[in-house]
Design goal:
Elements: H1 4-23, H2 29-44, H3 50-70, H4 82-97, H5 101-121, E1 129-130, E2 145-146, H6 148-168, H7 175-201, H8 210-236, H9 239-244
Antiparallel strand pairs: 1-2
Helix pairs in contact: 1-2, 2-3, 2-4, 3-5, 3-6, 4-5, 4-8, 5-6, 5-7, 5-8, 6-7, 7-8
Length: 245
């Protein structure tokens, strides 16, 4: 049951981050409204609450920090729009409202991994390689371009969200929680690679927008995590894993 002090904390946090985002120009006005709605939906989801709201905050803070750091020698970072907010969060929110926490974490993992891969990858001293044939070198920022540094960054992003999952489930930590955390970490890498693939195949041909690619990448991460958790339950048949699921 949600406690009154949690609702007060939610309101204060949303207010703080709204003002902070506006002053720092991290989000435009519509983006701030969308972010607040997402935060509320996460908090009040059937299996949501403050813990899952905290996960969204971790994603937001790390994404913005590394975006600022990665682009400091490049073009000015434009405030994120409603489309960007929704593209990165709709799958995660849907997972919570469907009662599938693993999809929430898989999607958030993919969103953070992809963001870190893109932004930190800009600091690579080597040119990106196109993820699809003919695998030639492309300019930094090209849709579908990947770098070794970017891949490492995406792995780091996935590990962060996998670790957060383990932390908020510390009261039942066991082998199954560790396995699920690893699944979530790999979902981040998978989602990041999916983003690059869709960027090269769809966005570069102007068939979809970047926000749509973000949505597809988080969907890939969420479904990857869900599928591998199901496989784990089926083949290991762990009672603890079933309780987590």
């Amino acid at each position: 049951m949600i406690q009154s002090f949690e609702i007060i904390a939610l309101i204060l946090l949303l207010l703080f981050f709204s003002v902070f985002s506006l002053l720092r120009k991290l989000l435009d006005f519509k983006g701030i409204i969308a972010a607040n709605i997402i935060g509320i939906l996460v908090f009040f989801a059937p299996i949501g609450g403050m813990r899952h709201f905290f996960v969204v905050l971790v994603f937001f803070l790390l994404a913005e920090f590394f975006t600022k750091w990665g682009r400091q020698d490049f073009e000015k970072h434009e405030p994120r729009s409603t489309g960007n907010i929704l593209g990165n969060s709709l799958v995660a929110v849907a997972g919570l409202w469907l009662g599938l926490e693993i999809i929430f974490f898989g999607a958030i993992s993919a969103a953070l991994a992809d963001t870190l891969s893109s932004e930190i990858g800009l600091r690579s001293k080597k040119k990106p390689i196109l993820i699809v044939p003919p695998f030639n070198e492309v300019e930094a920022g090209t849709n579908g371009g990947i770098t070794f540094l970017g891949i490492i960054a995406s792995i780091f992003g996935g590990i962060v969200i996998g670790t957060v999952y383990a932390i908020i489930h510390f009261n039942v930590f066991n082998e199954s929680i560790f396995v699920v955390s690893m699944i979530i970490a790999f979902a981040g890498l998978f989602g990041s690679i999916a983003d690059s693939f869709f960027g090269a195949v769809l966005e570069s041909r102007k068939l979809v927008s970047n926000d749509s690619v973000n949505f597809l990448a988080t969907l890939a991460g969420g479904l990857f995590a869900f599928a591998f958790l199901v496989l784990y339950i089926v083949f290991v048949f762990s009672d603890v894993a079933m309780n987590v699921f």
